[in-house]
Each structure stands twice: as structure tokens, then as C-alpha cells.
């Protein structure tokens, strides 16, 4: 906790300038702090703006490149979230978890870690947390992670959100290789989702699919709304393209 | 090898193939020269070569071609599940939740056919006149699931391979609702991936022989009994590597971010795309249509 705070504080200035995103923070607030009596609500000044480039003078602009990187940073945020979730679960699995289920969760953790590291490396200097020495800390206190049903229910929510997020974000990309790269990850998330549904209930692999045969798709705004309680900061996707 | 028949078969898949060749005579000459040099077994390569020339680097041009190609694959999948559910050989093993799952998947494929047909309107190609012949696919529950895995995993690769060819600004109104065509293709893509994962889970079950080395994701391009091409490379290889690929965006992901990951995990973490020619060749290696 204190390490994270000081790392954030020391690198605030350079972090502020990262292309593709800014985290404008004068007050650092973390959710999930042990000493806190109540859940911490992100403050308005603690905002990650995906798709915005901030100049040295503090002026914000949205360029085509920053929009593209904004979508990739959005995917990176989601992969960080999933990786952090499975890492936490595998480190402290619920007592009633079955042995083959732990093997599955370990595979899921590794896939998400690989996705996270790939996107981080692909974004290079444009990654929104490039100057942070420690990754964002996510807040999973709204999940019940002490039972196998709680763990798999949380996993199902995250995987379904991930699939819907990729389905909704593809059309926002203008670089074909980026679309292909996210597509390679998107179908693996769908495989994860199908398995996670199966673990909880037989034949529920298709419960997100509508009568038109289409899987769910959500806009970045809808996705951020769904995951905001898990995030230690407020994320703004207002600068991302919408169509 | 009957070259005229092959051309005729190709025209059934893609009626405009001849329009894209400089003219019909040169196509026959090209195939003829290949035919003299190659054994019959190599025929698919010759066909692929002519097809590549016709469609230009395995890229389908224009949204109608992309969606007609998708329509053919969806018709194939729908027909496959429909025939399976009606096959007498599968009446006993394909029961309970297994049957429910296959009925659900058939319903999705039917919805995809309906949606793509409506999207194409008068541009929709007709269904193959003689339907689809899956040979001995329905002989056993196990062989049925092997075919299903092949079709679903190939379907995922096929949609992924076309995403870049669909203009993201196309928003037609179909049946009173507006669709973004690229997003629609991605929404079908993830459905096929859910199907693929579920079929793979079904193969782990006792009725299918407890094949617990098969996972919902594709590890190291392991064929699991399906034709090897399903997980092989497409053309060009640089764009369409095998499912065992460990390099994304120039990064070898077995060692990244200061940690190492197994080839199993890295290959499974990414699904690869395939070009239309390779997909068509795979389909034609197991289905007559």
C-alpha cells in the first residue's frame, strides 16, 4: 500500500504525460485499503482518460494515433483486471475448489497474464501506466472469493464482459493489424467464457447469445460502467471513437 | 483429375472467380501446366494457386464476397448439425444435455444463415444444389464430435481472417434493425469460439472417451484427431501462422515482462486466423458440396 502510493506520487509527473492516456491525480485514492471503514469512491480528479494525449503544458488533445492506442489501452486495462483477478484467486483458492478446477484457473491466469504482457509490450511508450513501477490495484471486494461458486460466478462476469468488450471495440480500430491482434485474443476470451459457464451450469455456454445468433457487444462506456467498482481510479472513455 | 469439373466446383463456391481471372483460357492453361507437373494428390495446391490469383493474395474483395463466404460456412455448419440430430447412428449416444447443446448450436448456425442471407439480399449466393455430404462423419458419437471440433475451430479462424476486409462503417438495416457489419461478424466469431470450446469440453466427457488431454482452447496446434490443416498455417504464413504460433507482433511470448510462460499457455492464449482459400480447401477435404 505505502509502496504503491509513493511510487505513484514520485512518478506522477511523467505518468501525466503518457501518450494515449492520462492519470490526473493530485489526491491518490485507493480502493480496498485495509484501514478504510467504507469503500472508497474514486475522486473526480483521479481520472484515467483513454485516448487523450496530454502535452507538457497540460493541454489535452485526441489524435488518430491516440484514439487507436486508447482502444488498445482499454483492452490492456481489461486484461490487467482479468490477470489480477485470477492471480489473486490462484494465490488463495477457496477451500471447496476441486483440483481440476484449480488447474483450469491456473491456465486462465496464465493466458490473461500473457495477454496483459503482450498488450503492454505492443503499446510500448504509449501504454497508459508506462511510468508506474507497480500495476494498478484492483478491488475485488464485491466478489465472494471464499467459495468455488463465488469464484466461478465472478469469473463468468469478467469473461462475459471481456467478450462483449472486444466485440464492441473492434469497429473502433482503424489499423487492420490491431483488429487482427485483438481478434486473436477475443476468441480465446470466448473460449474461457464458455468453459466458465460450463463449470457453473451444464449447457449454459450460450446464455449470452441472442435469438439473432449474435453474442453480446458492449461499448467502452457500457463496459467501464460495469467494472467501475473494481477499478481504483475513474476511467473516462469519452475520447475514444464511438463508431 | 477433371479440370473442368474443378473449375465448375470453384464457380459454385465463388461464381465470380472467372471474372477476376484475366480470362478463362489463361486459367485453364495455368491449371493445365500444374496438372502436367504435379501428381493428383497435389491438386488442391494447384486449385489454391489459381484461386489465389483470382482473389488476390487470398483476400476476399468487398463485403458481399466476405459475407457469401461466411454464408457458405454457416450453411455447412447448420447442415452438419441438422444431419447429426437426424442421424440414426447418433440417436442413442446423442441424448440429454449433449443433444440439447447440439440443438442450441444448430439454432445459432440457422440464425447466422438467416442474418447473412438477409444482409446480402439479392447478392446472396444460392445454397449448393446437392447439399453437403459429410461422408461417415455420423458413424459414431466420437467421429461426430471430431468433425464438429474441426468445423468450429475452422469457423473461428475463418471469421478472424476476414475481419480486416469488412468496412467498419457499413451499417445496413436488416429486418428493421440496424447492424454494424464488422461488429456483427465479430459477434458471430465469438459465438463460434464458444461453440468450439463447448464441443471440446464434450470430447472430455465419458461418452466421448474421457479425452481429458483436450482443452477448450487450442494447445500447440494439437490436432486431436481432426485434419491437420485445421490448425496449420494459411497463406501467407506470416499473416496466417499455425495455431502453435508463439510470436505475436514480433514478440516471442514465452519470455515477456520478466517472466517465462510455457509454449502450451502461449499458443493457447491466442487463436490464429486463416485465409479463405485454406479454409475452403480444409472444408473440401472432408465435405462434398
Primary descriptors:
heterodimer, A: 243 residues, mainly alpha, 3-stranded mixed β-sheet, two-stranded antiparallel sheet, 7 helices, 50% helix, B: 289 residues, 10 helices, globular, disordered N terminus
Detailed description of the structure:
The complex is a heterodimer of chains A (243) and B (289). Chain A is mainly α and 243 residues long. Helix content of chain A is 50%, strand content 5%. Chain A is built from seven helices and five strands, in the order H-H-E-E-E-E-H-H-H-H-H-E. In chain A, the strands form two sheets. A three-stranded mixed beta sheet of chain A has the order 1-2-5. In chain A, helix 3 runs antiparallel to helix 4 and helix 3 runs antiparallel to helix 5. The model of chain A is unreliable at 1-37 (pLDDT under 50). Chain B is mostly helical and 289 residues long. Chain B contains ten helices and six strands. Chain B has a two-stranded antiparallel sheet. A two-stranded antiparallel sheet of chain B has the order 3-4. In chain B, helix 3 packs antiparallel against helix 4 (43-55), helix 6 packs antiparallel against helix 8 (181-204) and helix 7 runs antiparallel to helix 8 (181-204). The longest helix of chain B is centred in the N-terminal third of the chain and has 25 residues, at 62-86. The two termini of chain B are 17 Å apart. Chains A and B meet through helix 4, helix 5 and helix 6 of A and helix 6, helix 8 and helix 9 of B. Chain A: This is Ferritin-like domain-containing protein. Chain A: Residues 1-31 form the signal peptide.
